UniProtKB/TrEMBL annotation:
Transmembrane segments: none annotated. Residues 2-100 form the YqgF/RNase H-like domain. Its main location: cytoplasm. Its EC number is 3.1.-.-. InterPro entries: RNaseH-like_sf, YqgF, YqgF/RNaseH-like_dom, YqgF/RNaseH-like_dom_sf. Belongs to the YqgF HJR family. The lineage of its organism: Bacteria, Pseudomonadati, Bacteroidota, Cytophagia, Cytophagales. It is an enzyme of class 3 (hydrolase). This is Putative pre-16S rRNA nuclease. The gene is ruvX.
Length: 137
């Protein structure tokens, strides 16, 4: 069964998460350099069946765009062009970084580890975005 891949786009790093084959659970996958995102997805799609790419849409609390919104929309356009067979979905990502940090604290991650492993925060944020998407389906 095809999976769903979630993307938490950042200016430097991008967090990725993927579902299990039954599309029930979201699992953190990887944190990569944003500049390598399209190549990473191409390689991932060559080895795994994915039918949907979920892209976190950053918006302000008042519902207006923030400074990352145009970058996410540009990435959505690139994804649609590069991967025409995949459905591309946008999902509100407000509070995901805060929720990811709280999850890491709840799991016992020490403050030093959270600081040193900022990449963990990105992929956990992607997993939260993905889980939110799954719950809305």
């Amino acid at each position: 069964m095809p999976r769903v891949l979630a993307i938490d786009l950042g200016t430097k790093r991008t967090g990725l998460a993927v579902t299990d084959p039954l599309k029930m659970l979201a699992n953190p996958l990887e944190t990569i350099e944003t500049s390598t995102l399209l190549d990473y997805i191409k390689a991932y799609l060559a080895k795994e069946e994915v039918d949907t790419l979920v892209l976190g849409l950053p918006i302000r609390l008042n519902g207006k765009d923030n400074e990352m919104t145009p970058k996410v929309m540009a990435m959505k356009a690139k994804l649609e062009e590069t991967f025409p067979n995949q459905k591309i979905e946008l999902i509100d990502e407000r509070f995901t970084s805060k929720m990811a940090m709280q999850s890491m604290i709840a799991m016992g991650s020490k403050k030093k580890d959270r600081r040193e492993k900022a990449g963990n925060l990105d992929k956990v944020s992607a997993a939260i975005i993905l889980q939110s998407y799954l719950e809305r389906q």
